[in-house]
Amino acid sequence: MSEEVVEKPNKNDLHSELIKKLTSLLNNENTDDALILINDEQFSASLVDCSWDLIPIASGYLNSYNIKNKPDLFQCCVTLLENIASRCDPAETLLEFIEQAECLDNDTKFCTILRPIATCLKRLEGSRGRSLEWCINTIKSHVSELPVPENQKLEGDEIVLLDTDPAVFRIVNVYQAILPFLKLFISEVSLSHGEIVIANQRELLLSSMISLLGKPFCYLEFEDKKSLRRMLADDILKCITHLTGNPFRFFEYVEKRIMQVSNPKSFKEDYIEKDYSSTKEANHLTDLFTPTDMISDLAYANFYYLILGSDLQLPWVPCVYHPHYVLQNCLYLSSCLLKNPEYLLILKGLALIKAALVRIDPFSVDTDALELKIYSKFIEDLSQVMIYCDVREQRESSFEVFKLYFRIFTMEAKYLLIIHLYDVFNHSGLRSCLTSIVKDSVIKCLESDPIDPSFTGKRIYALLVKACKMPFLSSSDLVEISDEIIGSLNFIRFLVIRDKTNLTGVWNFTAKLETDFIHPLREGLNMSRAHYQLKIKDLEAQDKFNKSQTQNEASKSNDKISITVGGKTLPTMPTREKINFCLQAMNAFDVMESILIRVNECIEQRLLK
Predict the structure, then answer these.
(1) Would you list the DSSP string of 438-506?
(2) Which domains does the chain have, with CATH numbers?
(3) How far is CA 236 from the centre of its chain?
(4) Considering just the CA atoms, what is the radius of gyration of the chain in Å?
(5) Which of 212, 500, 505, 513 is 20 to 30 Å apart from 374, CA to CA?
(6) Which residue has the higher pLDDT, 50 or 105?
(7) Residue 99 class from Cβ within 10 Å (0-12 exposed, 13-18 middle, 19+ buried)?
(8) pLDDT above 90 covers what percent of the chain?
(9) What is the spatial distance between Cα 257 and Cα 291, in angstroms, rounded to a whole number?
(10) Whole-prediction pTM
(11) What is the DSSP letter of 425?
């Protein structure tokens, strides 16, 4: 009797049948049968072989709609993916999972797939190679595409309204998935292990944790200690301290960026074109920390803001670094924050630099420091906040920082910085602030024993030339530069009243002051006063005429008489408002004239003696 031959199912047929059945069950939302099919012994081997086809099918159901409206279907697909990650070849399936995780518009899918990716990586262990780096790059790509919160002009307690921004919810949700994923591998390479063989993985994770503090996370507010944002920031810092015992070590890389700004050619020669022969040195500068595409300036700035500028406590903060070195790096990072238009970044930049400045002793930063461009670059960026930021609290805070900043320099360094800034600053209010600092510095020089020469002699004349824009043009628009003119006149008045014995040398230059500043200013005041008196007369006649016209006719006639300040015509406004502006200008002229008269009296009295 012949034996019946039982043919085994073709392997390809089993693959096709499994994919076809599973697709049908998922389409029909028959999750129970789908889970049974996955564990069916007949298809067990096929599951391993056709994972590349199954992963995209199951991943297609991972979206926000299904997680809310079809939780069973969603969970079934999650189980299937976890099953594949735990049973199939981890190296092969990892690549497919990474490909599926590249979904910039689907946070639900991205966050969910991180779990099976972690399973694959854990199974790789010692043979992980560059697999973790690929996964981290995928995470970075997704994070970089997240939207930032709307730039809202909020003051004081209003800042809590940032919580209502949908972008904040999205950022928090994504970070809540990313951190547990990375923690799995941080625990393997934390400082408590100390094995050299995992040093590269430790540095990779360290770099990635700092980079997560950049965009968009740096756009979040961290003051609310009970908020998820604050908890996430705290969590990231704790992870960093598990990977390095010195959170200030990254100043080394910030310093390289400062050098690049100060001397781009030297930086290129030292750090890019240099041929590194030793593997150790090459690995160091393959550099997970210096290039901005690895860690952005905003990431470093936010990192040190959290350490120095907020009340977020670390287990330890190094105290061996010189405060001047810390300041130098914070100047660069603060500038990176201040030059952004976002109010929250400006707030962090001011908090960071203020925290660094209060650690500096007065009159301790010498002229050598000014060789670094960052010292002048910072004050230029700060000045933009002082002038243009439309949040009152931040303007006031920036002015406090401005005063703190000048407090740290020696008299010699302060003189050199002020001379430079007079050439840089065009805004009348800022130039007036500089003149006020000059006045305070002269007082300090006169009070020292012996007298400090930094603001005396030819130097005081050089400062007067800058402050008074000598030789002064009588045709200058006095309304536009009224602040600096009043500041300069007050400074001259202070000098001639305080320095009766010519310790500063100001009396050596009074004739030059009269010729190049006082006389042309007097002429300018007379011309400006006559101009605005005529303008007021014309505007009052126009206002009287407007009252006799209809509203539409009066509105049209408002443009007939224009007012020009600094070469620019003021925007359209009612005639009465134009009159008020002219009256304010006349008041400014009166102030200038009264101080000018007092200056003349003081000079004449001394000449008579």
Answers:
(1) HHHHHHHHHHSSSPPGGGSTHHHHHHHHHHHTSSPPTTS-TTTTHHHHHHHHHHHHHHHHH-TT-SSSG
(2) 10-145 (1.25.10), 190-199+210-404 (no CATH)
(3) 19
(4) 35
(5) 212
(6) 105
(7) middle
(8) 60
(9) 9
(10) 0.88
(11) -
Contact 480, 433 (CB under 8 A): no
Q: Angle of helix 107-124 relative to helix 131-144, nearest 10 degrees?
A: 170
List, in order, residues 6 or more apart from 51 with CB less than 8 Å away.
84, 88, 89, 92, 93, 96
Residue 287, CA distances (Å) to 139, 140, 142, 276, 560 in order? 19, 17, 22, 12, 65
Q: How many C-alpha atoms does 292 have within 13 Å on its Cβ side? A: 12
DSSP state of 550: -
Structure tokens at 267: 């930086």
What pLDDT shows up at residue 2?
A: 44
DSSP label of 369: G
CA distance 583 to 577: 10
Residue with tokens 């209809």: 550
What are the structure tokens assigned to 168, written together?
A: 């904040």
What letter represents residue 539's amino acid?
Answer: L
Cα separation, 561 vs 539, whole angstroms = 7
Q: What are phi and psi of 574, to 5 degrees?
A: -60, 150
Q: What is the C-alpha separation between 176 and 165, in angstroms, rounded?
A: 17
pLDDT digits (tens, 9 = 90+) for 140-169: 999 999 999 988 877 666 666 677 889 999
The span from the CA of 96 to the CA of 79, in Å, is: 17
Amino acid, single-letter form, for residue 397: S
466: CB partners within 8 A, 6+ apart? 419, 422, 423
Mention every residue, 6+ apart, whose C-beta is less than 8 A from residue 148. Answer: 167, 215, 216, 219, 342
3-state secondary structure of 365: strand
**Any long-range contacts for 517-520 (C-beta under 8 Å, 24+ apart)?**
517/464, 517/468, 517/470, 517/471, 517/472, 517/488, 518/596, 518/599, 518/600, 520/471, 520/472, 520/473, 520/474
Q: Residue 5: which pLDDT band, with cuts at 50, 70 and 90?
A: very low
Give residues with Cβ within 8 angstroms of 531, minimum separation 6.
none
| Residue carrying structure tokens 């979040």 | 220
Pairwise CA distance, residues 243 & 187, whole Å: 9
Secondary structure (H, E, C), 88-145: CCHHHHHHHHHHHHCCCCCHHHHHHHHHHHHHHHHHHHHHCCCHHHHHHHHHHHHHHC
User: pLDDT by residue (tens digit) across 305-335?
Assistant: 999 988 776 666 777 889 999 999 999 999 9
Whether the pLDDT of residue 529 is over 70: the answer is yes
Q: What span, in angstroms and rounded, lies between the C-alpha atoms of 560 and 535?
A: 12
Amino acid at 533: Q
The dihedral through the CA atoms of 316, 337, 403, 462 has a sign that is positive
